[in-house]
Amino acid sequence: MKSKNRLFGIVLVILFSFSFVVAHMPGAKPPPEFELDSIVILDGGTKIEITIDDVGNYHNERMKEFKTKMLKKKGKTDEEVAKIIEEEFAGADGKCPCTSCAFRAVLLGISKIWGNEIPEREDIKIITRRPTPGATQCLQFITGTGPNVPSVTNKGELHMILADGTVVTDLSVPSLQKYMKDMGIESWNFIIIRKSTGEEFEVQVKEDIFPEGFEELRKKVKMEKTATKEEIDEFRTMWEEVRDAFLTLPDWELFEGIEKPFPVGGAVFFSLLVIGLVTIMVGTRKR
């Protein structure tokens, strides 16, 4: 009996560890309340609003499909697969740090390039440096280039060019996992391009968004499978912190080169102050 229990425990650990790679962070708390604008695009003349929930759900579904295929290859029955998927993805909403970051990057890039215009999906081109399923599937949903994306008439473009110049053309999960071991701050980078004009905007995440030791623990927990329970718990807390930052912080705190907007009240006060000073100076000269 003890040997059976031990074997069962080992199986659970393997499944638990594998789940870290493919989708989410088991045991993570839900994000705090937040408000994010939708990404609004046109596709074949139809207006489409894409929310962070949309990309999160899409990421979740793609990862469930991937895990289902893996389990069936291992000889699991449909009933066993359904039970494992239900347990592993319980409470998961797909809003991981990577999906949230990619969504915010595109939201910012579109606002900088198109301003008040609504872009056509086919006019959007994105270059990503981040070879993770979360970021990739978020961008596939927005550009309409991923499998089973709804309401796609005219696709945009999505290209993955890693920081070292490697071009990745196979964006499937097994392919991406080959590039996920060593990812520094330079991988948190996205270029949004308006194809019709060639205008582009580069979005680079600030390094101080990440807690100290985040990348090292990520490798131990998700890739190398050498993390202790204490390290897994520590990384889970870091993971939540980074995800929450991308969901709640303003652009100028998340991304390089974005200036904090001048407060409206301060701008009005400053304008009145300038007008007052000019009036005084003019009056003084007339005297």
Characteristic key phrases:
single chain, 287 residues, alpha+beta, 5-stranded mixed sheet, two-stranded antiparallel sheet, 7 strands, 51% helix, globular, disordered N terminus
Structural class: alpha+beta
Query: What characterizes the major β-sheet?
Result: 5 strands, mixed
**Relative strand content:** 5-15%
Mean pLDDT comes to 88
- How many helices does DSSP assign? 10
Give the % helix. 40-55%
Radius of gyration, CA atoms, in whole angstroms: 23 Å
Taken from the alpha-carbon principal axes, the silhouette is globular
H/E series: HEEHHHEHEEHEEHHHH
Strand line-up in the sheet with most strands: 5-4-3-6-7
CA(first)-CA(last) distance:
103 Å
User: How many β-strand runs?
Assistant: 7
Low-confidence blocks of residues: 1-22
Number of domains: 1
List the SSEs and their pairings.
Blueprint: H1 2-22, E1 39-43, E2 46-50, H2 52-73, H3 78-88, H4 97-114, E3 124-128, H5 133-143, E4 157-161, E5 167-168, H6 173-177, E6 189-194, E7 200-204, H7 214-224, H8 229-248, H9 251-254, H10 264-286
Parallel strand pairs: 3-4
Antiparallel strand pairs: 1-2, 3-6, 4-5, 6-7
Overview of this protein structure:
- The protein starts with a helix and ends with a helix.
- Helix 2 packs antiparallel against helix 3 and helix 4 packs parallel to helix 8 (229-248).
- It has helices at 2-22, 52-73, 78-88, 97-114, 133-143, 173-177, 214-224, 229-248, 251-254, 264-286; strands at residues 39-43, 46-50, 124-128, 157-161, 167-168, 189-194, 200-204.
- The protein is built from 10 helices and 7 strands.
- By secondary structure, it is of the alpha+beta class.
- The strands form 2 sheets. It has a 5-stranded mixed sheet, with helices on one face. The chain has a two-stranded antiparallel sheet with strand order 1-2.
- It has one domain (2-276).
- Mean pLDDT is 88; it is low at 1-22.
